[in-house]
Amino acid sequence: MAPSIPVSGSRWRDLPFVLLLVTLLALHPLLLGAADTGPQQTPDMAALLQLQAALQSTAPGVLPTWGGDGDPCEKAWTTDIRCDPVTRRVVHLDLKRSGLVGNIPTFELSLFDALTYLDLAANNFSAFNGQEFIVQMTSLQHLSLARNNMKWFPTDVDMLTSLTFLDLSNNQFDGKIPMDIFQLRNLEVLSLENNLFTGSVPRTLSNLVRLKTLNLGKNDFYGPLPQFFGAMHDLVNLKMDLNRLEGTIPDTFAILRNLRRLDLSSNKNLTGPLPSFLGELGLLQSLVIPRPPALPDRALSEHNRFEGSIPEAFGHFPRIVSLYLSSNRLTGPIPESMCGLATVELLVLERNELTGPIPPCMTQLQGLLILDVSENYLTGTIPVVPPGAPIQFVYTNNCFDRAEDNSPSCPAKPPGALPSGGQVGVPIDQQQGGGSLNQQVGVPIDQQGGGPMSQQVGVPINQQPPGGVPVPGVTTPPCPDIGPLVALQAALQMSSPDALQTWDQGSDPCDGTWETEVICDPMTGHVIRLDLRRANLSGEIPSAELAQLNRLTYLDLGGNEFTSFIQQEFLERLTRLEYLSLADNQLKWFPTFINALTKLTSLDLSTNQFTGEFPEDVLVMPNLLHLKLEENRFVGGVPDAITDLSKLRSITLAGNNFTGLLPESLAQLTSLQAINLASNQFAGPLPESYAGLTNMVFFKVATNNLEGGIPDWLGSWPRLNHLSLFHNRFTGLIPESLATASNLATLVLDENQLTGFPARRPQRAHQPRSILCGGQPAGRGNPRLLLQSAEVTIHQSEREHHDLSFNTKLTGLLPDYLSGIQSLESIAFEECNFKGPLPEGYAKLPALAELYLDRNDLEGSIPGLYGDMPNLATLYLSGNRLTGEIPGSFCRLGKAKSIVLGHNGLTGSIPDCITGNLKELRLLDVSNNYLTGPVPAVPAGSPLQFDFSSNCLDSTQGNQLSPCPSSPVPSTQPPDEATPRQPGADGSSPAETTVDPSSFPPSPDTSALIQMLAGLRAAAGTDVLPSWTADSDPCDGSWATSIKCDNLTRQVVHLDLRRANLVGDVPCFGLSRLNALTYLDLGSNNFTFFRQQEFCEQMTNLQHVSFAENQLQYWPRTVAYWPQLTFLSLAANLLSGPIPEDIGDQISTTLMHL
Questions:
Q1: Which one-letter DSSP state was computed for residue 327?
Q2: CA-based Rg of the chain, rounded to a whole angstrom?
Q3: Nearest one of 415, 400, 307 to 357, comparing CA atoms
Q4: Helix H or strand E segment including 638
Q5: Do the Cβ atoms of 834 and 809 come closer than 8 Å?
Q6: DSSP structural state of residue 297
Q7: Which one of 316, 382, 606, 778 has the fewest CB atoms closer than 10 angstroms to its CB?
Q8: Is residue 785 within 8 Å of residue 1144, measured between CB atoms?
Q9: What is the Cα–Cα distance from 804 to 765, expressed in whole angstroms?
């Protein structure tokens, strides 16, 4: 009996009357009955009419049904407009195939601020009108601009952070994939198919961790298939056809356990053996790696070149429907194991070099519709097709024995050289069709007509339209689970009334007419797979109704808003389940029923609100291969009983609060290929016992409290592809063994306490294509808002060839042994505190295309050999202490696009051949040096951006430059080093000069710095910054902190006060007086607050700002007033809550570390 609630006092006496009144008010609409005037008209009516007018201005007569008396929310207008049932706001607008032309009226579309779905596909739009209004469409989740005539990319699309679906296919976008896309972290579907994109596939795609469908087909991407695809664990559909990809299929594809469709057809030179691990992808339904029929002429010479035998594992696909292996160089027999492909419908092995007989059992496969083994070297007898079987069996141009009805000749030369067809030596247009199957030999299957079959041959069954004439001999049983499905629908709609609207009791759930993925057993008709991801479901999971679908092997309820279960014990009946996902919900109570699911191989419970210690119910699933518990609130350690999961291949525990040492027990799970323990509170060293995990491909322990050296044995893992130790306390050198890890593509080591590279080049060093250290250079590219989290592994750069990334603040000399790594294409060591001269050996790297050495402390002259690098396209040497002349050899850098030499101590003239000879050059920056002589002419019409400001150049063409000091400029080198050489009187022979530092005026910012110093010392209670003295010049290097000044004005432009023991308030007033400041680093101090922020607002020249590793609790809103900002770091503070909107508006073009 429930305890009674005591009622006392006068305020409770009228409670029955109050309850009655509330009930009557709730029933008010029902009591009025006939007085109900129906749904309210949408408040977006005016916006719809305004949009119609804008569209009709370029396409008169379109949308003729818009307007009038009908309600657009009630489908009175013929276009698909849907409204929120409560607010009546337009949330869904489908204008595809509406005959629209011209520019997309972005302003009018932005008026629909509740819009979540927008489809403008299959029109003839060419550009945006006012695309800046895109940023206001923040509710959009689905956007399609496919099949238009768009050439200019929507540059602010990165602000649409709610997008889960983006389709830009079949347009004319070109160049590299814009970086804006990589900030859309919620994207699940991205299609860029059939555009003009080029370059290698950018690594930053791996930022899209939720991506399930990626379609980059029919573009001009080149280079190898990316290893990092293996880190995109949620990929379901991957389409890379008709590009120029080359090399082998990476081992990392082995961990794409959710992959269902993979299309690598018609690339330039994909080669090597077919990897057997593809046969272990248990969900794969379609594998296409040939040149399919009926492609354009361009594709005929660009089919793949896979070789070797067909792996036995290819006969073990449990769900394969379409398997295309044609037009390769496959040899050996057809494996007998292929007789086990119970679900296959299309099996195409034509145009290879296969030998031996066709296994007779292949024609007995119950679901097979097409078997094509033509143009091989197959021998023996032709298997018999059972009477009435619907199989189209194509076996022409082989070496079979004579059969009663068939006597094809054996080809005298390789099958690929024969004309496509069955009658050797007869022109295709003269060949005869016919035969028992009406097969038109020589005509691609998907172009044939007639025949007894209405089936669209060549099109995967699950993509064909429903209806049509049944295939003879095949009777599809009705779904016996229609009742349980309808009951499940009713239960779910109790808390989500608008969900599952396409579930219609009058249609067959197995024929694809229900939008959610329902797959049935082809023999029994029972539902075996149910995918309800992101179906807008909420409330409680109806366990009893789900349990009636007791033949389920796959169940995905992820991406909804479920909070709990109703009688979860019923779910113990789903004993056939092999895959279960409850990810991305709001569950708090752990699903204890899982301990009864002994066949489970994959369990995903990530991104919920589970608490407590590691759940013991997980430990009793003997067949578990993949376990994901990331982004919950688990605490404590990982139990030793984890070893009971002896078959485990991947475990993800990232984003919890696990503590203690890294679990030694994981070392006993020798099948492990992927470990992700990032963003927890593990401490101590990496266990030595992990050295035995030799199958490891992906290892991530970033953002913990790990310490000690990085062990050598990490480099002994032969398959290691991704290693992330970011944001820990590792010390010492980067071990040599990592340089010999031949498959290592991603190495993330930044934010540790590492001190450098190995002192010598490691023996047997593998050949990485890129090495980087430090952050994205300010002002380069188009950096975007980037939240540094456990999921962002390569966050420093947008360049696209990173196979090895040393993201650590290293010191000392530049490693000269890199000059022996002939494969290097990119070296990026910006802002890494390197000292000493530029290594001449880098000039010997034949493939080097990018060299970023800016913002270090390098000195000496630029080697003349740097002008002899044949492929160098980008050279950044700015912000160092380089002296001497610009080498005349730079005129031979024929592929150079960017040369940036600003903020050094360079002297002499600018070689005029640089601006005249280098036709590819787009950026030349020699500002802030001591260059003399005339300004080289830029050819008329040249796209070159040329910055020669703040030098000692002559005035030419009416362009008065800044005044140059009358006396020789001071050297930035210490007195005991050689001073810069000035040109002789005739300009031909430089002569040694003596520099008098006292001849140069002192910095005008000295007094401002000293005044600020007084406040900093008062707050700290000690003499911080002891080298700052009023009688010395901050620009001459006598102040120990890193201060850099403009060469001519002597104003401070660079101030680095990291680790200066500063406390209290950020000194906004003092900093505001440094009005030329572009670089400010106050990191690793103990600042707590921004006082007088209005003064910091005046620092409008700032480009690079870091407040990292302080004690800030409040957001610095002054950021919104720094329009030139390109880099902002607030990492490792005490900030909380959402990013303030005024900051978010400003930092849309800022690389931001939180």
A1: S
A2: 34
A3: 400
A4: none
A5: no
A6: G
A7: 316
A8: yes
A9: 12
The total number of residues shown for the chain amounts to 1154
Strand partners, 859: 881
In this prediction, residue 670 has a pLDDT band, given cuts at 50, 70 and 90, of very high
* CA angle at 1075 for the pair 1069 and 1076, rounded to the nearest 5°: 145
Kindly state the tokens that stand for 343: 């679900």
Q: In sequence order, what are the beta bridge partners of 564?
A: 540
- Spatial separation of the C-alpha atoms in residues 531 and 549, rounded to whole Å: 13
Question: What is the sign, positive or negative, of the torsion defined by CA atoms of 198, 201, 206, 207?
Answer: negative
Confidence band of 996 (pLDDT split at 50, 70, 90): very low
Burial 619-641 (b: 16+ CB within 10 A, else e): bebeebbbbbbbbbebeeebbee
One-letter amino acid for residue 596 of the chain: A
Cα–Cα dist 693/525, whole Å = 43
What pLDDT shows up at residue 360?
92
The answer to whether 231 and 208 are in contact (CB under 8 A) is no
Strand partners, 925: 900, 947
- Specify the pairing of strand 1042-1045 against strand 1052-1056: antiparallel
Cα dist. 324→314, 321, 554 in Å? 12, 10, 25
> Alpha-carbon distance 127 to 145, whole Å?
11
Please tell me the pTM assigned to this model: 0.46
Give the tens place of pLDDT for each residue, 547-575: 999 999 999 999 999 999 988 888 989 99
Q: Which residues contact 757 (CB under 8 A, 6 or more apart)?
A: 733, 734, 806, 810, 815
**Cβ contact 680:657 at 8 Å:** yes
Distance in angstroms (rounded) separating the CA atoms of residues 371 and 1024: 81
- Give the closest residue to 171 by CA, choosing from 146, 142, 201: 146
Q: Which residues contact 11 (CB under 8 A, 6 or more apart)?
A: none
Distances in Å between the Cα of 448 and the Cα atoms of 130, 428, 445, 547, 909 are 48, 14, 6, 45, 71
* Contact status, residue 556 vs residue 579, Cβ threshold 8 Å: yes
The tokens for 61 are: 């007569």
Residue where the block lists tokens 């050689």: 978
